[in-house]
Amino acid sequence: MDAIAEIAPALETAAVPVVKTDLDLTVGNHGLIVVDEVHGFCTVGRGPLAPTVPNPQIERMIAETERLAGVIGPKLVFRDSHPPGQAEPPYPEHCVRGTGDDELVDALAFLEERSDALVMPKDCISGVIGGMRPDGSNVVFDWAKRTGIDSIVVVGICTDICVLGVVLPLLSARTRGFLGGVKDIVVHEPACATYDLPLAVARSLDLPDSAAHPQEDFHRMGLLIMQNQGAIITG
Ligand SMILES: [Zn+2]
């Protein structure tokens, strides 16, 4: 394969738009799912998956999440939180219980005290899998049914990992009727973010090329995949 043929698929993907509509909260009953806006992913210097310098995309996400949390009633808040020593390949140990890295960022810490917010620690990528109880019932499904919402707005980090990881099973759960009256799964783009690890940085850290994760590209790819499977993208 010559060099042009190798990059051609990437160029074609670049032409596919993320189609964003306005988030209209005046119609219907919305619930908000906040994914993993914890220190270990968002606060400079807080562990191997946290930014090393202030990151505008992450700062925008936190500010927009704080705003939405003030105007959307029912909230389900995931915190990535692992017992010490639990492996989650390919990622290094992160958001370990007892370190504080698994706690909500300062701007969202108030959600721990809110009666309209259910905070759920999870120790895997997908909040739907993380929400499974031993008896087979599910925290996420029960929250959606109990609150009587008809639309779920999903925000958080990372767009292409844990946000994608909850949105895709939510789309299937909606189809199967596990979410009560929920019709729409919405991803609010300005309140989503992902991490930045350019290829050159990955190589400088002696990581494999497969570890590279340029922020804007992966943010966009996550949105495209969710959009393509029926999520509504707003922003
Ligand atoms: Zn994790």
Order of helices and strands, N to C?
HEEHHEEHHEHEHHE
Which distinct ligands sit in these coordinates?
zinc ion
CATH class: Alpha Beta
Compute the number of helices: 8
**What form results from the Cα inertia axes?**
globular
CATH arch. level architecture: 3-Layer(aba) Sandwich
For this structure, what is the CATH homologous superfamily?
Answer: Isochorismatase-like
Would you kindly provide a written description of the structure presented here, covering whatever features stand out?
The protein is of the alpha/beta class and 235 residues long. It has a single domain, classed as Isochorismatase-like (Rossmann fold, 3-Layer(aba) Sandwich), CATH 3.40.50. Helix content is 35%, strand content 17%. The protein has 8 helices and 7 strands; from the N terminus they run αββααββααβαβααβ. It has a 7-stranded parallel β-sheet. Strand 5, helix 6 and strand 6 form a beta-alpha-beta unit. Helix 6 packs parallel to helix 8. The longest helix has 18 residues. The radius of gyration is 18 Å and the shape is globular. It starts with a helix and ends with a strand. The mean pLDDT is 95. Bound molecules: zinc ion. Zinc ion binds next to loops.
Topology of helices and strands:
Blueprint: H1 3-14, E1 20-21, E2 30-35, H2 39-42, H3 56-71, E3 75-80, E4 117-122, H4 127-130, H5 139-147, E5 151-157, H6 159-176, E6 184-193, H7 199-204, H8 215-228, E7 232-234
Parallel strand pairs: 1-7, 2-3, 2-5, 3-4, 5-6, 6-7
Zinc ion (ZN) binds next to loops.
